[in-house]
Design brief:
It is a single chain. The protein is an all-alpha fold and 185 residues long. Helix content is 63%, strand content 0%. Helix 2 packs antiparallel against helix 3, helix 2 packs antiparallel against helix 5 and helix 3 packs antiparallel against helix 4. It is globular.
């Protein structure tokens, strides 16, 4: 087996193109079967990254970090993770890693409990997509969502609180845009 150590290229692929690569798979699953187990796992990752940034907001004594963190957490819990990921989590690598650890646990719970989604949404706001429209009284996927979300939130929050962030950490620098060859400075 080859070396599986993440490289800057694989990390960049994960962060920049994972949505554009996964969305067609989820769409295909929902179109062909009416449900998507992959989307259920993705939902846990959104919740987990939201919990990680929420922990930063609560733990930090810096007003700007609290403001950005709370706004990013609300956004992530509603299914839009970019403010959390690009605003705070990636700039503090341990915060992002803590969110990934929570995602792994949430995804594990979702997989073990055979969770599935019947719609194309995510985050906590997507709870209604866990109800099976063909069998409304079948609540296995909804219970899976509740448990996986709780696990994702608890694990991510505790990981950030204990290991992932303190106010003495320095934020990673923004990467400067590269100049196109032949363009004037």
């Amino acid at each position: 087996m080859s070396n599986m150590t993440p490289t800057p290229i694989s990390f960049s692929f994960l962060v920049n193109s994972s949505k554009s690569d996964i969305v067609p798979l989820v769409a295909q699953q929902i179109a062909s079967t009416g449900q998507s187990s992959l989307n259920a796992i993705i939902c846990a990752t959104m919740v987990s990254q939201g919990a990680a940034v929420l922990a930063v907001a609560i733990k930090s004594k810096k007003a700007d970090m609290k403001e950005l963190g709370i706004a990013a957490a609300i956004s992530a819990f509603c299914g839009v993770t970019e403010p959390a990921i690009y605003g705070i989590n990636l700039r503090y690598k341990k915060v992002f890693a803590s969110g990934c650890i929570g995602s792994a646990f949430g995804g594990l719970v979702t997989g073990l409990m055979h969770g599935t989604m019947y719609g194309f949404t995510g985050g906590l706001i997507g709870f209604s997509s866990f109800f099976n429209p063909a069998h409304p009284t079948q609540l296995n996927s909804f219970y899976t969502f509740l448990i996986a979300s709780a696990v994702s939130i608890i694990v991510s929050f505790i990981a950030v609180w204990v290991w992932g962030y303190n106010d003495n950490m320095t934020m990673g620098k923004k990467v400067a845009k590269k100049q196109r060859p032949g363009s004037a400075k």
